[in-house]
Amino acid sequence: MATRVSDFDSTAIFGNNGEDNTANASLVYLVVGVCIGWSSPLVPRLQQNTSHIVITADEGSWLASTVGLVAAPPSLLASVLVDVVGRRRMMLACALPFLVTAVWQRFASSFWELLASNILSGVAIGFIVPVFPLYVVEIAQDHIRGLLVSLGPLMAGIGAFLMMIVASYAPFDGVTEFMMAGPIVFVASFWWMPESPYFLVAKHRSQEAAQALMRLRGKSSNNDVIGELEAIQRALEERTKNEISAADAFLELRRNAGARRAFFLSITYVIVLVFGGSATMGVYSTQIFQTTGSSLDASVSAIILCAVQVAFNILGVLLVDRVGRRPLVLFSFGGCAVTVAALGTYFYLMKFGNKGTVDSLFWLPLTALILYYISYDMGGNALLWVLSNELTPASVRGFSNSCVGILLSVLAFGITKLFQLVEDSFGTYVPFWFFSISCFVGVIFAWFFIPETKGRSLEDITAEMSAKAEGLPRESLTRKTSLEDISAVQ
């Protein structure tokens, strides 16, 4: 019997296709971007004698890097909680620490209070980073899955851009009040989004799962989603036969060569991406422009850089399901390798070259960083969570997301903290040349190991991972699972 949704008109709220409005979920990444972008404009300001809280360079490096470190443990815990409380509730719950962070900074009077508030926001980020892509992958259809997942990094870039503008011209109190608005807007818009239908079926709440699918697909009757609902239920039955908890996911990696290969590809991708310098240049962009001694205002240069990031993040989102994953990754790492090498060369000339040569290259730092982020945002950044969630099978996807989130946090902290130390000890050009070498390694890695996943079902991708892990042609594998089997709830 057809069951109508009586609570509200899903088409009115979600449009003709409810999935078009999953951008509501990505608003939480805008809040994440605001918090991550906090340090770039504000740390240099806090180091000035006129600041209401004066900090040292070492304290500034802690403020810039700690968020990444403290995000690691929550990322691991998220793999367990996400299957207990649900994806939607976890995302909504993270709005509270973001709001508390902003209020705390509003009334902070010491470095330690700023550090503690940053730690709190880092905990919330640690939960959001692995949960958001999992939620989106489970509600998305194949043809726009990459687009929807890549909206997260795009919104993070927009958040950092807005923070750069506000923090460059508004007083500190005004910045914190701007930060308060983000979590409030997110909750107000995301509150109406349904829970993942996979999670609901796993909790034996099939009727709620049907209503969630109806809202996501813009339908008004059970008959319109009965096929998809039955597929999810079959996937749950298959999962019950081979139940894999978060604690057992590591054992599954040992047993399943295809899952292990996909997991290590995801981990290697994160390592290369972070070692390419993206995290460091994001939090130190204003300071880097100040170091160049360019006649261009450092704050204006940083704002231009953020604007470019947002623009090409948008382009990357549009291209990810058109051009394909692999070409964008190759373009991304290749472009980053060349541009960051040029920036390192500029800093080398600043230290060992003549002043005339350096002065004639005043345009190089901003140009190189713009081209770097064009390359980074069109591929590496946009595809981080797309590849991680497409390559790994459902049985280890939650575990893999948590590991990726932890590694991303720890490496971002380490390389951001070490940047200041290496710069002071050996010169600014050294870390930039290291970034360039890492990006070049990324080109080699992508060329030989990253498969094309555009427009392919998760079943097909998993089959290829298993075939390559076993050294067999993909066509020789017997497909034992359906798309829904490998897309099942963690």
CA gyration radius, whole angstroms = 23 Å
Strand portion: under 5%
Quickly give the CATH architecture: Up-down Bundle
Strand elements, count: 0
Overall geometry: globular
Distance between the termini: 30 Å
Helix fraction by DSSP (H/I, runs of at least 4): over 70%
List keywords for this structure.
490 residues, 75% helix, disordered N terminus, globular, Growth Hormone, Chain: A, single chain, 26 helices, mainly alpha
Task: Report on this structure.
By secondary structure, the chain is an all-alpha fold. The chain has one domain (15-193, 244-486): Up-down Bundle (Growth Hormone, Chain: A). It has 26 helices and no strands. α4 runs antiparallel to α23 (394-426), α6 (87-93) packs antiparallel against α8 (111-139) and α8 (111-139) packs antiparallel against α9 (145-169). Residues 1-20 and 474-490 have low confidence and may be disordered.
What layout of secondary structure does this protein have?
Blueprint: H1 10-14, H2 23-36, H3 39-46, H4 57-70, H5 72-81, H6 87-93, H7 95-106, H8 111-139, H9 145-169, H10 172-190, H11 197-202, H12 206-217, H13 226-241, H14 249-255, H15 257-275, H16 278-283, H17 285-292, H18 298-319, H19 325-352, H20 355-360, H21 364-380, H22 384-391, H23 394-426, H24 429-449, H25 458-470, H26 483-486
Helix pairs in contact: 2-8, 2-9, 2-10, 3-4, 4-8, 4-23, 5-8, 5-23, 6-8, 7-8, 7-10, 8-9, 8-22, 8-23, 9-18, 12-13, 14-15, 15-22, 15-23, 15-24, 15-25, 17-18, 18-21, 19-21, 19-24
